[in-house]
Known about the structure:
4 helices; two-stranded antiparallel ribbon
Amino acid sequence: MEKRPKIKVEKSFLQRLFDLGGLVMLLLCLLYLYLEWSALPEEVPIHFNGQGEVNDWGGKGSLLLLPLIGAVIWIGFSFLERYPHVYNYVVKITKGNAELQYRSAVSLIHFLKNTIAILFAYLTWETILVASGERAGLIDWVLPAFLMLIFGAIVLYVIHSIRWR
């Protein structure tokens, strides 16, 4: 790896607000899980097919995995945001383009971490509703919408990165 400049990328107010939103969503889903725990059946949905229908069941302890994975991703990406000089880039990083490339890459990581955290919080909430019999399955358009957001952000980042090399 070539010697890249180390530049600290400051977060904007909106990015800090988005961080707070992602973290609050994870904490709220944990609180909801805690409050509903005793009312949940011992066997809960652990997997859904593409139409949002339950196709696998497991112990209710498996519900802890969704917010746990969301939190691990959120914390890991928060750590990763601090070191943009170690990322892989689609263009060569120079002193002239480093700040713009770093800011763009950090913005992508920031967007992904919070979108994924919100997705895992939402999936926890929906799974609890399905387990308690309040819903038959997941809303079928939500997962494709999240995937479009995530992959759309990645595509836009790559286009932006190449355009501003």
